[in-house]
Design a protein that fits this description.
2 copies of one chain form a homodimer. Chain A is of the alpha+beta class and about 375 residues long. Chain A has helices at about 10-20, 55-60, 75-85, 90-100, 100-110, 125-135, 225-240, 275, 280-290, 325-330, 360-370, and strands at about 5, 25-30, 45, 65-70, 85-90, 120, 140-145, 155, 170-175, 180-190, 195, 200-205, 210-215, 245-255, 260-265, 305-310, 315-320, 320, 335, 340-345, 350-355, 375. Chain A is globular.
Chain lengths: ~375, ~375
């Protein structure tokens, strides 16, 4: 039996594990601690550090195919393993490009794929100098080249009053885009070259709080826009030559341009609804793809929405769920908690999928979830 | 957090585990060997014998709620634990009735629930005596009072030529029923008394081989028959006062009578399609019910069929799947292998669910599965 190893044992690994139990594959995970989301439930779990060369090399000896559920893994080990003939998905070169947002952006430019303009800068002083020199102007977005996630490593600078938000790290600077909608597509490719993509997802914002309220799929956009997003995502996964998943985030601007924002070569928040809304989830398709099996159908039966469940502000400590009964009473609402032993303010603790035949009904259910379901300590 | 313990670590436990990962409950399993279906994947697994009093008592100390995935557990331990105040689902008295088919049949009679006539006999000699005395006559069905499953412990005796099939064990004898269809319903009740039931399922037989080809849901029977089956199942789970699942198998005879055949107080083969065809699967509902949580919707989106995957005749040894690729290529066909390390002829190795909008399309997919997918060694 082919042995698969996953670097990372967080929620994405947990859902890969859950979704492929029926395929009876041999899947193991590497992460720091048995008490992380995968280790708490899965038998085949190795404690170790996926950013450490030796730990990755040792773990890889147990498996035939190595994949990831987080980008921040030890690249040197992956390049060396690839040289030794181990199957690595996504390929280390793609991962290296994606790990550095400046190189990632340059990749889009080189391949004539649409993305906003940008310049690469060294640090905070360099940004201030560029402002003085007029090579960038307000408002702009500064992004750390490495290690950003979930909005961390990104600063929106509207004027001098925002200078204390500037990141003092290698970065790129982009002009602010006049965003009509934020969209995302997950593409999937196996080694033999089959490619599929999921329906386009839209981020729905709370107009008052300016925070993402929920994700909705299929996105309510013109068919031509949806097709363009999917075809870009499918082209990109081919250009990167990735086996596995590639999640692509887009801006649709107010002039109707579709711009690639950034990508992730793994299961992604924007595909969590596929657990319940699609015939084959992103997690199952990731494993099918890296094992070079036929890909599953990405078709959606129903409209699907996804709400992230974040740790409640003001609570830190052992996780307690409040209001789960209210959620379990609702029809076609599916709870996916990640088994994190400790909650912290705004930590991603789980998500809830809501299916339905009309958007109004789905939004009513989301309002109930927002009101009753909390993660406290 | 409430701790749940399950006696048994076979495929039914494996699917309970898989289906409730998102609820982040604390679920542990007891079975002989780590290499059984649950132990191979789940972290929280204890090696021990669920038919052994001491093993069950020790395991129970770790949990608040104790349930089963197999009937054949140590009843003395369950009665003692119940006395000590442990929550036991199903309750030991119901389990005791169900473990013995003679007492089970008497229970239906006592509650005026429809079932075929029967007499209780001691052994093979007693059956032959009853034949001589004319209190039973050909053709009849002899059933062992205890430990029968998957057709084992049942003999159909059409005449003297079948006498070598007679079981020499405490048994009951029923007249053969003129069966129009074999149907099944799974009911679910939680401790607070909410009751739901799934759509009626029908066993579809191969007319030549006279073997079950697949299970189909919702059964193609008159609405009145379906309603009657569901209402009997819901009444039965209440009469047994079971929290959890009760699977009820029925005969619909050629005169339109609905007769209870037998029951199982746990997830059941006739509910395996609910993993993919119902909003909330039987496995998730079993765990919700024993944890006294609100029950999930039993609604089906689409027609669903289920094919058991049995070990191929002539093969015994380490499990090898043949033809999985052909199955993965089909849309809305879902593979559920049980992770059994060793295959044997006719051993239940997994099942495959097939969803669709029309029965013809589903039957075409089943023909492909039958042709290509095999479990060999």
């Amino acid at each position: 039996m082919i042995k698969i190893g996953i670097l990372g044992g967080g929620q994405l690994g947990r859902m890969m594990f859950q979704e492929t139990i029926g395929l009876d594959l041999d899947i193991q995970f590497l992460d720091d601690n048995r008490h992380f989301p995968v280790g708490r439930i899965a038998h085949q779990f190795t404690e170790g550090d996926f950013t450490n060369y030796d730990d990755v090399m040792a773990f890889a000896q147990k498996v035939d195919i190595l994949s990831i559920e987080i980008e921040k893994v030890n690249l040197d080990a992956l390049f060396e393993l690839e040289k030794q003939g181990k199957k690595i998905h996504p390929n280390p070169r793609a991962l290296e490009i994606i790990q550095d947002k400046a190189i990632q952006k340059q990749f889009y430019k080189d391949h004539h794929l649409p993305t906003s303009d940008f310049i690469v800068l060294k640090d905070k002083a360099d940004v201030l100098e560029a402002l003085d020199a007029g090579s960038i102007s307000y408002p702009f977005v500064q992004k750390a080249r490495k290690d950003g996630y979930d909005g961390k490593g990104v600063a929106v600078i509207r004027g001098q009053m925002d200078h204390d938000k500037l990141l003092d790290t290698p970065c790129l600077v982009e002009p602010c885009v006049d965003i009509e909608k934020e969209l995302a597509v997950i593409a999937c490719k196996n080694e033999r070259g089959d490619i599929v993509s999921y329906e386009v997802v839209e981020m729905v914002f709370d107009p008052e709080a300016n925070l993402v309220k929920y994700l909705f799929s299929p996105a309510e956009v013109k068919v031509a826009y949806a097709q363009k997003c999917r075809s870009i995502a499918e082209e990109l996964i081919q250009k990167f030559d990735i086996s596995g998943l590639l999640a692509v985030e887009f801006f649709l601007d107010t002039s109707g341009n579709i711009l690639i924002n950034e990508v992730a070569p793994r299961p992604h928040n924007s595909g969590h609804h596929t657990l319940d809304a699609a015939i084959c989830s992103q997690f199952e398709n990731h494993i099918r793809a890296i094992a070079n099996l036929p890909l599953g159908s990405t078709k959606q039966y129903k409209m699907g929405a996804m709400v992230n469940v974040l740790g409640e502000d003001g609570f830190q400590g052992y996780t307690i769920y409040i209001g789960m009964e209210d959620i379990l009473k609702m029809e076609d609402v599916h709870i996916h908690m990640y088994g994190k032993a400790i909650t912290k303010p705004k930590r991603k603790m789980g998500h809830i999928n809501i299916l339905g035949d009309n958007r109004k009904e789905i939004e009513e259910k989301i309002a109930i979830i927002d009101q009753y379901f909390k993660v406290i300590a």
